[in-house]
Amino acid sequence: MAVQYSIQSGYAILYDQHIKVQWSKFVWERCSIPKHRYILWLALHQKLRTKEQLSKYFPAMDTVCLLCGDHKEDITHLFFQCTYSKICLVKMKEWIGCRVQTEHYQALLQWISKAKHLSKLRKGFFIAVVSALVYHIWRVRNDVLWSSKIWYVNHIIEVIKRELKLRFIVSVYKGKRNRDKEWIQKL
Ligand SMILES: [Zn+2]
After folding, report:
1. CA dist list (Å): 78 to 18, 66, 124, 140, 186
2. Is residue 72 a contact partner of residue 63, using CB atoms and an 8 Å limit?
3. How far is the CA of 78 from the centre of ligand 1 (A)?
4. Ligand 1 centroid from CA 75, angstroms
5. Closest by alpha carbon to 93, among 24, 160, 4?
6. How far apart are CA 13 and CA 27, in angstroms?
7. Domain regions of the chain by residue span
8. Taking the model in full, what pTM does it have?
9. What is residue 76's predicted lDDT score, i.e. its pLDDT?
10. Lowest model confidence (mean pLDDT) among 117-131, 142-156, 168-182
11. Rounded to an integer, what distance in angstroms lies between the CA atom of residue 23 and that of residue 14?
């Protein structure tokens, strides 16, 4: 069956394809830890079951963010407009020396992939940092939901740093020596 073409629909198709290419690049970045990549993939495809998503099926359900208690919980808010996740992002950006201002996870990924001053290796590491943040913030959110406990930001930051350095040193660039590898080892 043919679909009637219009400039708007053509643009929508092209735009969608463009975004999909970009997304796959982020999600399959090998610096990232597989379980982090999986949650990032869900977030990028709007498939994380946030309260805002669930309220479409259960209209009576409250949609207040579990982390700050102050805004509607949707993916854009969780990554990284929420007070809790914003602090995590600031701390991780300080750690890797990333000065970009955006607090939107997709804009952040786009910026990293296009940054001309970053080597391929550093881009991969930066993307791994964003993936780790998305994974851990989602995990913290679920802990609040199911166990009514919230982790201190510093605890989350330390866990992410440890995980990423281990991933990088042990699995990803074993055997290669260069300036970027030394930079990551010194973090
Ligand atoms: Zn919040």
Report:
1. 24, 10, 22, 11, 30
2. yes
3. 6
4. 10
5. 160
6. 21
7. 7-186
8. 0.82
9. 95
10. 168-182
11. 14
User: If you measure from the C-alpha of residue 149 to the centroid of ligand 1, how many angstroms do you get, rounded to a whole number?
Assistant: 15
Question: What's the 174 CA to ligand 1 centre distance in angstroms?
Answer: 38
pLDDT, one tens digit per residue, over 52-86 is 999 999 999 899 999 999 999 999 999 999 999 99
Residue 160 CA, ligand 1 centroid: distance in Å: 20
For helices 7-27 and 34-44, what crossing angle results, to 10°?
170
**Which residue is associated with the tokens 């709007």?**
46
Cα–ligand 1 centroid distance for 55 (angstroms): 16
Q: How many A from CA of 105 to the centre of ligand 1?
A: 15
**Three-state DSSP class for residue 116:** coil
* Predicted local distance difference test score (pLDDT) of residue 182: 78
Phi and psi torsions of 72, nearest 5°: -70, 135
d(CA 20, CA 60): 34
